[in-house]
Design brief:
The protein is mostly helical and about 180 residues long. It is about 90% helix and about 0% strand. Among the domains are: about 60-125; about 140-180. It has helices at about 1-20, 25-45, 50-120, 125-180. Helix 1 runs antiparallel to helix 2 and helix 3 runs antiparallel to helix 4 (about 125-180). The chain is rod-shaped. One of its GO terms (cellular component) is cytoplasm.
């Protein structure tokens, strides 16, 4: 009688340990009932090979589970890498586009400044007409200059943002590399 009670306690202890280690409730109940059957058959006096087989099945199950989880983790890390790579490539493309726009703006600014210098240094033939034309031209040139200065400020901000993104991307790549090891 006492051996029967100790056997039941052992089974309850095994059942609890199995249910604690299994993540899914439905899978846990089917595994624990399977394990109970194996224990009953093993304790009923059958050969030790059956217990070894059940142990091998349990080990192979946990190895397969670990393999599935590690494959899933690798897939997620690869997805993260590709997302950061896409973001980096997009930032580089945007940076190149903005650099070309800035270059054209600089060229226009230099042309406008040359025109302004020529206009200020030149002598007008008709005083009043040329004075009004110079004022209009000067005003439009000043407006263009201020617009270009604003564009230069935006470019500087974009350069800083691009550098920050590059640094962040590098840090994320290092973290992902460490996690994958």
């Amino acid at each position: 009688m006492s051996s029967l009670l100790s056997h039941k306690k052992d089974q309850e202890h095994l059942r609890k340990s199995l249910s604690d280690s299994c993540p899914a409730p439905s899978a846990a109940s089917s595994r624990s009932s399977r394990h109970e059957r194996l224990l009953r058959l093993g304790s009923s006096g059958s050969s030790g090979t059956f217990t070894d087989t059940s142990t091998n099945h349990a080990e192979s199950y946990f190895l397969q589970r670990e393999n599935r989880l590690s494959a899933k983790k690798r897939a997620e890390e690869e997805k993260l890498n590709s997302d950061y790579k896409k973001m980096y490539e997009k930032a580089v493309a945007t940076n190149q586009r903005l650099k070309s726009r800035l270059e054209t703006s600089k060229q226009e600014l230099s042309e406008i400044l040359d025109q302004l210098q020529r206009t200020q240094n030149g002598k007008p033939d008709d005083g009043s007409y040329m004075l009004e034309a110079e004022k209009k031209g000067s005003w439009s040139l000043k407006k263009k200059i201020s617009d270009m200065e604003d564009q230069l400020k935006v470019k500087a901000e974009l350069k800083l943002e691009n550098q920050r993104l590059k640094d962040e991307n590098g840090a994320l790549i290092r973290v992902i590399t460490k996690l994958s090891k």
